[in-house]
Amino acid sequence: MLNVILFGPPGAGKGTQSERLIEKYGLCHISTGDLFRWHTKNDTELGKRVKEIINSGQLVSDDITIAMLKHEVEKNPEANGFLFDGFPRTVDQAKALDALMESMNTSIHAVIELKVTEDEVRQRIAKRKQLENRADDASDKLDRRIGEYFNKTVHVLPFYEEQGRLSTVNGIGDIETIFADIDKTVSALEV
């Protein structure tokens, strides 16, 4: 079982690169953003709570996020592995994810950071806003999300770096080159 975390700020290209990793390695994609949007769209009880939090521009709490994630992992016991996108965002979440993986007799094998500047992120999201209508791309919410990432979320990276599981890939450039760099990291893993 191959388990990878794709890490980066909003607009870094996690969704785009996730699609390629899933296709090549047959991984089960778990995006907390997609999960939040699904629950919100389907107006589940959890979705109502998530919608309120996201609409205020805040991060969804660890207990809600971990419960949703655990449910998704348990739904897929025969998976070749998992690709986590947008999670973890805190060291506590990273520890909870490690515990979940350990309970399944596996672990996180690699954390791949898509390194993208804040200016690049803002340009990409401005383009995305023209194509998609995502509530979390509204400028006031976007400012908070970007601030959360660059001021708080990045602090989870040293947790993985200390364990030798962190690789950084330049997230600026053409999609294929970025994927080739990600793939080098993943294909070198001994799982």
From TrEMBL:
It is found in: Cytoplasm. One of its GO terms (biological process) is AMP salvage. Its EC number is 2.7.4.3. AMP binds at residues 32, 37, 58-60, 86-89, 93, 134, 145. Pathway: Purine metabolism; AMP biosynthesis via salvage pathway; AMP from ADP: step 1/1. Its main location: cytoplasm. GO terms for molecular function: AMP kinase activity; ATP binding. Belongs to the adenylate kinase family. HAMAP family: Adenylate_kinase_Adk. This is Adenylate kinase.
